[in-house]
Amino acid sequence: GGSVDTENKTWRGTRCPSSSQLAHRRRTSFPTRSRKLRPGSSDSTDGPSSALKKSGRAVAALLRTQQRAALPTASVCGFKTSVPNMSGEESRLEKTVGKPTMFHYLELSMPSDKSLCTYIWIDGTGEHLRSKTRTVNFVPKSAEELPMWNYDGSSTYQAQGSNSDVFLKPAAVFPDPFLRGSNRLVMCETYRPNNEPTETNHRHKCAESMEKVKDQEPWFGIEQEYTFLDTTGKPFGWPKGGFPGPQGPYYCGVGTGRVMGRDVVEAHYRACLYSNINISGTNAEVMPAQWEYQVGPCGGVSAADELWMSRYILHRVAEDFGIVVTFDPKPMTGDWNGAGAHTNFSTKAMRAEGGMKAIEAAIARLAKQHKRHIEAYDPKEGRDNERRLTGRHETSSIHDFSSGVANRGCSVRIPRAVAEQNKGYFEDRRPSSNMDPYRVTEVLVRTCLLEE
């Protein structure tokens, strides 16, 4: 991101007009109605007037300035910067003036006894989210207080048009960082009319497994990697018609040309904290435009609830910046790192003195169930991960199970500090970045603790 002078409303040294000035320029750029004038008059409609020429040049200059900056859309001091790679100057101008208008409506007072609840669910792809909003006449404190709802499953790859109703069951509630106040985000499970879960509703089985092992206090910490794209589908900030320099300076990088999209990352971080998501950190990753954040440690099913909600918030924040987020585990072929969702796992026994024995026992069980876990670790039962788990770029081979201390080329890694302290946790490095955390945490519990 560039530097911002909040007092003078400047971005990278280019003075930006206020939203009212932008609106004035749009109003004066084109005549609103025609008038009958004498031929040859200075403001005859036979040709553009001097005022029209001046205002048109002003708007064009503004757009050229924004285009040169090539910055993501960002709300700064009541105005927006432009979106790179948007098609057409009108689209850029619309993006520039849109959010200040929206701020006016977000500042309107709301009835104290009402709450806007955005119901969020996983669609039939198993990796993408959908949402819609309803009004309730109270401020919900838990998911159990909220009513079930329904939607058209034939439009989300989850039902046929002849019997399209799918039902939403609220499962977890979070403060809404976008509408704020008493409004809420609601993570939901999806059910058919006969009360059977849909094929992509893995939460109910995950919750059942966590209930069986709650006395062992399983904790999860998930490292979510992702990549920013521009609106053409190219990694954000990569040079047009080419590639950036080779990997090396980008991991945890600092400075222009080394990091892309930091403003989105920081905004997402704060939005997650506002929503009471246990986000514990973030960093730039090895491939330019690739980032990571960590959720956890969280107990039981809440780890997956919070990760899914953090993904929703990331997509919504990126909307405001005109940037696309992809969780594709290998967005770029060639000598570029893929994206994973390394899952750290521990139990009360592993965290206790001498817990290394429990860690080693769990890893031995994982070694016997490698194929089962590969199928559960991406939404396409291993086909997505096959592009990523090649044995290169800090990954293991998808075909073989391996483990080791401080070895990032293994399936399962024991951190050096854990080995030295003889207790702690282990990291399963196989899950893909687009994995379903309900499936991943459930299968870890079933293999390591229930020994199924």
Automatic annotation (TrEMBL):
It catalyses: L-glutamate + NH4(+) + ATP = L-glutamine + ADP + phosphate + H(+). One of its GO terms (cellular component) is cytoplasm. One of its GO terms (biological process) is glutamine biosynthetic process. Residues 39-50 have a biased composition (Low complexity). It is an enzyme of class 6 (ligase). Coiled coil: none annotated. The keyword Transferase does not apply. Keywords: ATP-binding, Ligase, Nucleotide-binding. Residues 23-38 have a biased composition (Basic residues). Pfam families: Gln-synt_C, Gln-synt_N. Residues 1-55, 378-400 are annotated as: Disordered. It comes from the Eukaryota. GO terms for molecular function: ATP binding; glutamine synthetase activity. Residues 202-452 form the GS catalytic domain. Residues 1-10, 378-397 have a biased composition (Basic and acidic residues). Its EC number is 6.3.1.2. InterPro entries: Gln_synt_N, Gln_synt_N_sf, Gln_synth/guanido_kin_cat_dom, Gln_synth_cat_dom, Gln_synth_gly_rich_site, Gln_synth_N_conserv_site, Glutamine_Synthetase. Homooctamer. This is Glutamine synthetase. It comes from Amblyomma cajennense.
